[in-house]
Amino acid sequence: xxxxxxxxxxxxxxxxxxxxxxxxxxxxxxxxxxxxxxxxxxxxxxxxxxxxxxxxxxxxxxxxxxxxxxxxxxxxxxxxxxxxxxxxxxxxxxxxxxxxxxxxxxxxxxxxxxxxxxxxxxxxxxxxxxxxxxxxxxxxxxxxxxxxxxxxxxxxxxxxxxxxxxxxxxxxxxxxxxxxx
Length: 181
What we know:
Layout: H1 3-21, H2 25-41, H3 43-50, H4 56-67, H5 73-84, H6 91-106, E1 108-115, H7 121-135, E2 138-145, E3 154-157, E4 160-163, H8 166-180
Helix pairs in contact: 1-6, 2-3, 2-6, 4-5
């Protein structure tokens, strides 16, 4: 485990405790995701935040200008703390650790569901119910579209992959024929 992830877990744990006390866990997660999306979508902004020759106070002002009052005080203060302590590079790790801590505490799991087309609400509900029973947690779905699957779905929960796709079945069938020869 790298030093960056250890530090990120400490920040994430503290942020989670504050968010839980204020009953803002979901909001804090969403705000962290939006901050990372802005940084990802605007690489120049991300580079400015990471630049070692820019003072922390100037970085805090940039964050204040860009996000204004879009962020809760909790998330804004956490960002300021990361910037002041020159831990800008830990932000994505803090989000990952925060999500992991929140999921564990709230009995949730994130599932990346890959399908050839967008899932309907009914399909999402069915997948949530089935896999929720399987893993014993409340499932939160992120739908990723991959037309190469042909049909069916792949469900990734943590490090477990459940492949019910048509392309996966064809691959397994091909492998069994190869072994038989």
